[in-house]
Amino acid sequence: MQNRLSGSKCLRRSFGTIPKIVAFPNLIEMQRDSYARFLQRDVPAEKREDVGIHAAFSSVFPIRDFTGTAYLEFVSYGFGDVKYHEHECLHKGMTYEVPIRITVRLVIYDTDKETGVQNIRDIKEQEIYFGTIPLMTDRGTFIVNGTERVVVSQLHRSPGVFFDHDKGKTHSSGKVLYTARIIPVRGSWIDLEIDPKDIVYVRIDRRRKFPVTLLLKAFGYSGEEILAYFYRTEKILVEGKRLYKAFDEELLKDQRVSKSVKHPVTGEIIAKKGNRFTKKTIRQLVEAGVDRIPIEPKDVEDRVLAHTLVDPKSGDLVATHNEVVDEEIFDRILGAKLSSFDVLYIDGVTSSDSIRKTLLLDKVETHDDALLEIYRRLRPSNPPTIEVARELCRQLFFRSSHYDLSAVGRLKMNIRLGQDIALDVRTLMKDDLLRTTKTLVELKDRQGPADDIDHLGNRRVRAVGELLENQYRVGLVRMERAIKERMSLQEIDTLMPHDLINSKPVSAVVKEFFGTSQLSQFMDQTNPLSEVTHKRRLSALGPGGLTRERAGFEVRDVHPTHYGRICPIETPEGPNIGLIVSLSTYARVNAFGFVETPNRVVENGRVTDTVKYMSALEEKDYPIAQANAPLDAEGRFLRPTVSARVEGEFLMVKRDEIKFMDISPDQLVSVSASLIPFLENDDANRALMGSNMQRQAVPLLVSSAPLVGTGIERVVAKDSGVTIVAERDGEVVDVDASRVVVKHGRGGNGSGKQVRIYNLTKYSRSNQNTCFNQRPIVRKGACVDKGDIIADGPATDGGELALGKNVVVAFMPWGGYNFEDSILVSERLVRDGVFTSIHIEQFEAVARDTKLGKEEITRDIPNVGEEALTQLDESGIIRLGAEVKPGDILVGKVTPKGETQLSPEEKLLRAIFGEKAGDVKDSSLRVPPSITGIVIDAKVFSRRGVEKDERSLSIERQEIEALEKDKDDELAIIEDVARESLTELLKGQTCAAPFKKGKKSLVKKGDKISSEVLSKISVSEMSFFELKDASQASHVVEMVQIYEEQCEEVRSRFANQVSQYDKGDELPPGIIKMVKVYVAMKRRLSVGDKMAGRHGNKGVVSCILRQEDMPYFEDGTPVDFVLNPLGVPSRMNVGQILECHLGWAAKGLGDQITSLIRSENRKSLRMKLKS
Known about the structure:
- The chain is built from 29 helices and 61 strands.
- It folds into seven domains: 29-156 and 463-521, Rna Polymerase Beta Subunit, Chain: C,domain 2 (Alpha-Beta Complex); 159-224 and 359-453, Dna-directed Rna Polymerase Ii 140kd Polypeptide, Chain: B, domain 3 (Alpha-Beta Complex); 227-354, no CATH class; 532-684, Rna Polymerase Beta Subunit, Chain: C, domain 4; 698-802, CATH 2.40.50.100; 843-938, CATH 2.40.50.150; 957-1063.
- The longest helix is centred in the C-terminal third of the chain and has 37 residues, at 950-986.
- The strands form 18 sheets. Strands 27, 28, 29, 30, 31, 32 and 33 form a seven-stranded mixed β-sheet that branches.
């Protein structure tokens, strides 16, 4: 056991016995890294990798016109400045995005009619605005139209080659039929299948099947080459009428001896007729130097010729390849006096006649005929020509613009087919099809196992960057078509690149992806845990993935390769069970998209602290010991055999064979599951419920950290982004409810930001209408280190996740009120607001410009009494702090009525006074039913050019005052730090010339500078000292220059922020003014509310009982909850009982310490803390 002060008010005692080797990785690292890799925003153009946006542009450009005389080439791309910051986008309903600009080059060629050589005639290069692209926030979310969204990563089948079989269910005979599939990221799928007659067929994009040899011939292989690749051959030697076959050790094994084989020297019979060639016989033949084996003519009959045979004298055809040797052909061979010929070795066991039969079925002989035949099958309505057929074949498989295996697909094919082709070769190679077909036939011949498609080596993660890259490419392809048409329709010489490029198709695709894609989801923001879990979620659904209806049991089930990569516990309970999963705590996604988990390296039987991340493919060759395997002081295994994972099975393995070891028991489960104490004592189903229900916990009015934790609470609170974390070391110089000001020390050269003002979010509304509020947990004068939590957020306490409350529970029946998971609750919890939460509703009023006239937001509302208007200000907007109930007016608004039938007198008056619509109706925004609360905020947005009302100006003044205070504080701290550094540098230095301020001389020539003199002058004036030490003088000038630059930066930033208020707001068309009102509601615990523990022990509040009627302890302490004891044994979640006991002990210890503090018995207190 170890005591650890975690930097907060929580004093934690760890009962862990396994030392922590690796810190938890950042929990939202996958999202942020993926999008950063997609944008490469901070990478110079010339150093960018071919991934993300760069890869999308590179795959579509250069674009050439139909004549081939003009090319539009992509040079680079860059980003502009963000127009609206995150908080502005949330309030104004905007998208947090950045403009993107691309540099393209239009090259026009002249073609020499005689030679066909192209010469450059003109080059035009231009930078073009290319729309906007959403930016990811530091929390791993996107703000789209004012709402925070998360792009969930997709778990899909990896590209590459896969082999499968039907388990004998397809054909009536029960014969197992094997199939293979080559899956690219982009392009045509190739399906290979073997039918019951052992013919190998191929389908392209699931169209009509045809023999695979037809496609091989279209790829350029001849029939003889195909046979030579798939079959071993036996050489038959002809000497007169005697026949021999060449001696081949491998092929002779287990064959029958047709003629006795004698020793060439002694004449002794080595192999007797009728026997089999055994290993011993073959060894004797090798020792005797036998190089050929005598055979009978019948041994050659029914064998298949490997090559076409031609009479060497006459040149006449004797027999063709793939022809069966019968008596007639045998006689022709003898007649042609051929010295030897090759036959195929087909024994029906290690090699079958599948390919030979497929070749017989395929009637095409030449390469061109094969191309034409495939074209007819794929494009049956078009008349075939050889050029068009050849171009189609190239386009389908060998052009990178149409076919892309990706680096992952090439890697998988290399591993599965035993190749070593470079990963940047992303189109199909001719050899790929040959090897795939051979592997499929061999698999069928030996009845081998199919690939496991649920193995994590065959499934990969497509994170947000890759998903968006695919969408971006779709938009660019649409744009390419339009560019080609423009190039052909208009005079290309007069055009500039911006005349050709229209970015709208790309912007539309990106907008559609973020707005409507199944994987772009409204963020679950109930509490910090639900945010983190949503960002770490992996979905098998979505475009290119599975559907709920089609997904079977196997794909949903837990797989051995999930160990340490995907959580076996956390998944939804409904129809999505197993299809939506979570990453394990230590898991990460590598560059290929495969999930990796860390393992400790074992060297010479000793467990080291070196950690290696391994994917499921790398791990399969090694036995891996569990994290809790007992070790001695030197890190060696204590027991001779160790429990280890070997290819998904748990076996006892000799300790010398262990090469790797798990790093922690935590690595098995996800973040939610690792927050459950005594998880190992809970049934899996209840642990699943516990994991899911923690995400539903509403942030309470006052959060309190759990007495019994697991150690990951601080990590979740920090990585979720709801807390504020110190960016650098420093000292807190000012704290209030809305901000924390931290002063940092100078960098080595006096540069670096000296002050950081952390503005806190106050009573903001989350996506689920829960309250998002931050409060500081540091005091003025406190020193903070980089990474320290300085402000708590919702559902956090002292920098730790605090989803619930520590309450006293009793497991006992109480008058039937806790029947069937009902919960009996003490009135104290309601009275003291222990489970009270705040919920914030947003209401919106919009003034539009209608056909009948403009709507107006005003206090002057027809047919409404003065009493209903008391809470409205002169602008017609409810004042802050007002208590509202259903039916109350939040924003007063009037709308012009339709024209009514006017009398002649009224018509005359209208004509004279010019009134258009005299009547208006009340269309005010009112509080809907069931809402009772307090108005905590109101935002007013006005279109540019519309005069601002008094409420808008008042809000602006408050915001500008806050900005001005930040500016003044920042300037003051910058000056303090600069003065301190310069005083230290100048004090005691000798002046080379007198220093005057005005007419008064402060320092004479040769005198030393004192701190009194320095205190009388400004920081900028300190650069005017002429020092004897020239190097120090230049250093002073440099530091003053840095100080002035920093001050200027602060002032210009403030000026920019203030200038934003003069510009007005961007509102949708037809809207003049928009008002958003936020109402906060306190919700107390009531009958019917659902409550839950961390172990899946959920229930509904059945009765709120007076405190004096609740069961009580021996000392008179009443309990807070009464739970049903029958809810534990049948559910098998004993962890809750263990948690109760440990929590009770912790509370008792806390009570003892409290009483010792109160009695001021310091000696006893020290003894208690030491124990």
